[in-house]
Amino acid sequence: MSEPLSRRTLLRAGATTAVLLGAGVLATGTAAATVPASSYFDLTQPSYDLFRGAMLHESHHVMQGFAFDNVNRRLFIVQAQNGTSGDDLCVNQVSFSGELEGWMHLDGAGHGVSIGVEPVGTASYIWMECDSDSTGTDGRGTALARFKFASGGTPSVRKFLTGSKTITCATDPVYERILVRRNEGGRMWFSLYSLADAAAGDFSAPLAHFPQPALSDPAPTFQGYTVFGQYLYTLDGTGHDDPADIDSYVTRIDLNTGTVAGRALTKAGSTLTYREPEGMAIYRTAAGETRLFLGFGSRDGVDRYANVFYKNVLLG
């Protein structure tokens, strides 16, 4: 499902456990960007299957964002819940071959465009939007939630950056950072932090802070993002039945400049039935191969399926 921007101004307040970004940081342009140089993915190289046709806990909704716990070797995928108003979300734990291993519900959360995961010992803590600004499919989060994943349980949530608008996040499991995307002054901005600082409630010193660059006019449909080292990766496009109509693109953006460094069409999963781009993530295998993952939803009648692919060629 695509991510139209919400223009609602009603924000649900919640007790914050974080230090909000100061007005000076929000008002200025790019903050002092101090992200060390890193390798980057060659977006022109082929993509490979992790799995196709996975049924998640909520059978009537496609996957949205997803993320990996790189320490405990877990994959989590978020989607909307069956039979609710649209902003109630379900977090699925899925095996690397696509089998459902657990799930949790977070009601009134938002849309789930992107999520993050933080390993703490043997536990996985989910980072995702919460406190939706409406109770329909156009609802978007106004704060970040952090909670321990426990299948079938009720999340015990800490909230950060409350009072935000259209906020989501993604985690870099290799460099242990978190990237926050939210609407600031009518435009989407990205802010990069140390994951340890964020978990401690300290958002006072972003490593980078810049507006989302324009990719075309009109803007393409934004479908997900992730972060690895010096670069942000985004996914955009719409759903199609005909492979000839594929318009899914992956873009690489330099976190230090906020500018586009590469962009390429992706045909991963081109034979899926009604293929729609949905989410991105980073994972490093036990053997040390770093992968850039792309998600695509598909369907068969009323049933919806998750499909995950990856690129693995690094340059630099």
Automatic annotation (TrEMBL):
Record-annotated P68 RBP/TagC-like beta-propeller domain positions: 62-309
Signal sequence, start to end: 1-33
Give the InterPro entries listed for this entry: P68_RBP_TagC-like_beta-prop (IPR048799), TAT_signal (IPR006311)
Reading the lineage from the top rank, the first entry is Bacteria
UniProt keywords, alphabetically? Signal
Return the Pfam families for the record: Phage_RBD_prop (PF21311)
Q: What is this protein called?
A: P68 RBP/TagC-like beta-propeller domain-containing protein
* Organism for this UniProt entry: Amycolatopsis bartoniae
